[in-house]
Amino acid sequence: MSEENAEIVRRATTEFTETHQVPELVAPDFVWDLSPWPAWTGQREFQGRDGFMDFFGEWIGAYEEWDQEVEGVIDAGGSQVVETTRQRGRLRGSDSWVEWRYGIVYTVEQGLIRRGKLYATAEEALEAAGLSE
């Protein structure tokens, strides 16, 4: 079942990257959890698809240009899937670009993504899921 969970995350991430809309593979009561990321000083948890979109709008609002590339989706066993991602953006009113490589541990149950827990580095996410890079 867990390889199926990894495929669900792959499909959802691809759809989100292409459309910037939360796919139906994300549970309506989805929880976006930023508690493992100490640098984030705002709200620590967002509820539901709308809550995630509120976070996303706030996040990309700082950029004139923004994109992300998923580096990998790893079956971590059970209901956990780790995604490693690199994003890059040009800050508003600046010629400066920033780049960040991070990880997310997703919980997938009954064919839906129920939780996403964001880690400051891909290595931290892998460790949290009991894996190493």
Question: How do you describe this structure in short?
Answer:
The protein has 133 residues and is α+β, with helices and mostly antiparallel strands. It has helices at residues 2-19, 48-60, 122-128, and strands at residues 26-33, 45-47, 63-75, 80-91, 97-109, 112-119.
Molecular structure report:
With 133 residues, this protein is α+β, with helices and mostly antiparallel strands. The chain has one domain: Nuclear Transport Factor 2, Chain: A, CATH 3.10.450.50. 29% of the residues lie in helices and 43% in strands. A 6-stranded mixed β-sheet has the order 2-1-6-5-4-3, sandwiched between helices. Strand 3 and strand 4 form a beta hairpin. The longest helix has 18 residues. It is globular.
